[in-house]
Amino acid sequence: MKDSIIQNKIKKTLVIIFWIIIWEIIALLINKEVFLPSPFSTLKTLYNMLFVKEFYISVGSSLLRLLTAYFLSCFLGIAIGYVCGISNFFYQLINPLIIVMRATPVISIIILAIIMFHSNIVPVIVSFLMCFPIMWTNVVEGIRNTDEKLLQMCKIYNIKKWRIIKSVYLYSALPYITSGMISALGIGWKVTAAAEVLSFPDYSIGTHLYDSKIYLETKELFAWTIVVIILSYISERILKKILSKSQNY
Amino acid sequence: MLSLQRIDKKFDSLQLFNNFNISFEENKISCIFGPSGIGKTTIVNMVSGLVQPDNGRILGTENAKFSYIFQEPRLLEWYSVYENIDFVLKDIMDELSRKNLIDKYLKIVELADYKDYMPKKLSGGMAQRVSIARAFAFPSDILIMDEPFKGLDVKLKKDLMNSFLKIWNKDKRTVLFITHDIDEALELSNSIYILNELPAKVVKKIEITSTDNLNNIKDEMLKLF
Predict the structure, then answer these.
(1) B67 and A167: CB-CB below 8 Å?
(2) Fewer Cβ close by (within 10 Å): the C or N end of chain A?
């Protein structure tokens, strides 16, 4: 068992090394850092960034924005989704709004938010508007997919409505809620970065991405992109660990 | 008396019941016997209020409390065996009475050692026994059993049937019981309603007294199919 885990890790590392080699070869062939920096110079840039205070302020600010938007989407998505899953009236009321939110291009939302709000909170609003519909949809679907047979059982035994809501609907929707939370987190990171690029708040990862583009610092662009990928990966791992503990049956 | 009067019920284009009448005696075990698809489950679902008839009326169920052994266990997967039974009792009794009752019935269905198990860890037969314990433990006026012993091994089925009779002899609740198994029907019931044809009809009602010769009744039932 343990051997196979180690073997698996070795395999994964080899795959990553393989793709880094491919990257290196292509970079060598192009031989222009502006178009494609080599893995080595990207990592060196990333390493140097770690010693600058502003790096941590920027990462911290972006993280704060993402988490604010994310928790707000999760909280409201679950609360409103729950009500809409149980009540058809509220579903009909909220659904058109969600359809519009989902169909609107991210870029339109970003531009509109830039016009209407302060640049520091634009990424929070945009990220919320992208994550909330995902949470809402998953929660509604989870509630609506509650096994009819279990509800019949509750009816027979005359279970009080609030206990059905707490003990049957909530648990039935749990797998849907967790998968919604995982996909919302990934999308949240991407959208936060995109909104930051366009609204350039004082401190943010997106502002650095924008600056790298302006000054044709492709190495930095790559380095900051790697930072987003790593942060997104780590936060997803943490989330999955927390969720798997809460769903241990 | 618990009775269904002049019942009409259609599922899509299938007229299951047309001016159908049936009456069950209270505090007796009544068995509904007949081929698949004749509407046996629909009858008990109408009695329990899970299904509404298109026309007709149901008498004798006003304010009645039900418990139901479904064809499948219908357990909450996120609750343990104990919690599943506790779930249906919580609104009606205090914690200590619940505990005593749950322990008693888990012992009867031979699952006392499994009370902390999650349903996913149980075999199909074990899960069904939890559902049986839940239905017995719930203080209902009417107990509905839809093929409750299906899929259980012979010895356990025999034991559970004996336990059922023992429990029933104490509280004598009204029991509606569906089965395909003639021996089961003969052993447990006070009366057997034999259904056939479509729309469904009670083609025969057999009262069983302890002095009856069960083999003769069995032959009689077999002749009807």
Answers:
(1) no
(2) N
